[in-house]
Amino acid sequence: MKSHPIRFPLAFVLLAGVLATGFCDILPSWNDTNAKREIVAFVERTTSKDSPDYLAKEDRIAVFDNDGTLICEKPLYIQFAHALDRIKELAPSNPGWKNTEPFSAVLDGRLDGNGLAHENQHRDFAKLVWAVSENQASGDSASTAVAWLDRAENPVLKKPYAKTVYRPMRELLDYLRSKGFTTYIVSGGGSEFIRVYSRKLYGIPSGQVVGSQAKMAFEERNGRFEVVLQGEPEFFTNGPAKPFAIVRNIGKRPALAFGNSDGDLEMLQWTTTGPGPSLGLLLHHDDAEREFAYDRESTVGRLDKALDEAAKRNWRVVSMKSDWKQVFE
Amino acid sequence: MKSHPIRFPLAFVLLAGVLATGFCDILPSWNDTNAKREIVAFVERTTSKDSPDYLAKEDRIAVFDNDGTLICEKPLYIQFAHALDRIKELAPSNPGWKNTEPFSAVLDGRLDGNGLAHENQHRDFAKLVWAVSENQASGDSASTAVAWLDRAENPVLKKPYAKTVYRPMRELLDYLRSKGFTTYIVSGGGSEFIRVYSRKLYGIPSGQVVGSQAKMAFEERNGRFEVVLQGEPEFFTNGPAKPFAIVRNIGKRPALAFGNSDGDLEMLQWTTTGPGPSLGLLLHHDDAEREFAYDRESTVGRLDKALDEAAKRNWRVVSMKSDWKQVFE
Predict the structure, then answer these.
(1) Beta bridge partners of B225
(2) Count of A–B CB contacts within 8 Å?
(3) Which of A98, A295, B146, B174 has the most CB atoms at less than 10 Å from its CB?
(4) Structural domain total, chain B
(5) Residues belonging to chain A with any Cβ–Cβ distance to chain B shorter than 8 Å
(6) Do A251 and B206 touch (CB under 8 A)?
(7) CATH code for the domain of B248
(8) CA distance to B162, B196, B309, per residue, from B150 (Å)
(9) Are both A115 and A227 inside the same structural domain?
(10) Residues B205 and B258 in one domain
């Protein structure tokens, strides 16, 4: 005890806090492994008044990637799957699509999202994603997506997309919020699309969704002014654009960042090299039985550079297989 | 009573709510005029469960312009005044400025912000504003601004800038929040600069400040990753860019918008032509005795088109002279 004169009382206080809450009641879908222990210890030491790592509430910023971190992204990002269906629905009123790539590829079945085999398919899908909300007023694009999310199914897991949220992550969001953290989504996906379901599925309000955004125009339509979405992106929130978007929308370096792919690398680098306490987390999809197993070679959610960096920077790699008791609701 | 069979009980409920709180305790720095009555009535009817205009908490979005709406903007926007002082401070380490406009104009006193006489001075000031945070890490630029705000004085009002917040507006922000509204600043000023004081002066956290933003770069500096501000804007949140920024950062059409100049026109148009209940407000600077009197001809905070539009669209024009009992703290 002599060598840690300050740390022992603190450890006791933190432990007492955890015991009071009940360690087993916290994050019940997580196994009692180092991942859960590290998360709980981080939350305790940043929220206990006597801790040297105590953070004021306004500094308890936690950012989460969406696809592959909060919800299943395989075999295809949900927004891509939605775009495929919408292109078919909208085709009758867009006769030109029959002869225009990549729309024609969707309509005659060459592009079906059955695995994003090539990098250029990402570009094709991006085009489709922005095209389906083109000329819609902001807010209106939500109505069609709501209905679609209730009926469309993940083709491999055979359950509605709304049921492919990771239960351990939903628990983590709730736990963080119960401890005074503000939880944000920082995603390459379109804000407008994620906002359709973020409150219902994650308890995250629209103002805490930081995603990609279409170019916009301001128009009067039938006596009502509208922000009209254009068919191309203003920005794509991936890689370094994630920290940029956090500066723009949140204005603070986060204390906790959770991602699952190389697109989250810079967000984790920025979060974990700040002056205060921080925790970087990466979800590793290593559970072919309950979900999917993929990392360095995947065209969706590739996790390669960030996995190397995790070892160097002591980011916690969360194993879906070993650290999660249950994957879905 | 026969002709309003539903409205009378409702009016009674709303009135009871106001009486219970105490009408005089609400917004004490406001005179008991139509402006205050309209604001209180709007808040009551959007937050009383039995009202047909009831808004769920997540839809109680209130957006406020900053300069000239929450804080005095005359004789010069505070961020412009700050940039003038910083240019002088930074001049020794930027010898090239002596021979480069508009920096040289500041250094030899030709540009002192004593009234923005010409439109092109706006462009000059914009250059200065972005230049003073160039190459600084996001967050670091705050430290110099904090110290400056505590000592620098408004040259006409002869009081520190921090004391030029409008007390009736601070009361309105508090009142709205006490009724479940989320209050946002949507300003042409730089987010980074406003965030320095938004919590302290307005009770508004950094994530609810929606302002102009510098271009950014991602760099590793001494083992720490940083978002580094570039010397030019990525976007300027004025005019139609205000609704765009609201879509981007908040993702909902506001229920209440409060501005004071033509730069707020589109924000008010968008807010007040949505499908739900809404309130548009414009602060009219008509009080030369206690503050300033300016509108259609002013180069700072020009209020011209929006004043015409207010009459057409039933926006409430708040007279500083008649509607405010007290202007400053």
Answers:
(1) B220
(2) 104
(3) A295
(4) 2
(5) 58, 61, 138-139, 182, 184, 191-192, 195, 199, 205-209, 213, 216-218, 220, 223-227, 234, 240, 243-244, 247-253, 266, 269-270, 273-274
(6) yes
(7) 3.40.50.1000
(8) 7, 11, 38
(9) no
(10) yes
* Chain segment B67-114, per-residue pLDDT in tens: 999 999 999 999 999 999 999 999 999 999 999 999 999 999 988 877
pLDDT tens digit sequence for A240-271? 999 999 999 999 999 999 999 999 999 999 99
CA distance B226 to chain A (A): 6
Domain stop point among B129, B154, B179: B154
> Does one domain contain both A65 and A29?
yes
**Residue A325, phi then psi, degrees to nearest 5:** -70, -40
Is residue B299 in some structural domain?
A: yes
Residue entry with tokens 């979900």: A291
| Whether the predicted pLDDT of B206 surpasses 60 | yes
Residue B230 domain-assigned (yes or no): no
Residue B179 shares a structural domain with residue B240: yes
Structure tokens at A224: 């009502």
Q: Is residue B220 part of a domain?
A: no
Cis-peptide into B95, omega within 30 deg: no
Model confidence, pTM: 0.93
The alpha carbon of residue A275 is apart from the nearest alpha carbon of chain B, in Å, by 9
* Structural domain boundaries enclosing B82: 78-154
- Two tokens at B96? 């090239």
Q: Return the pLDDT at B115.
A: 61
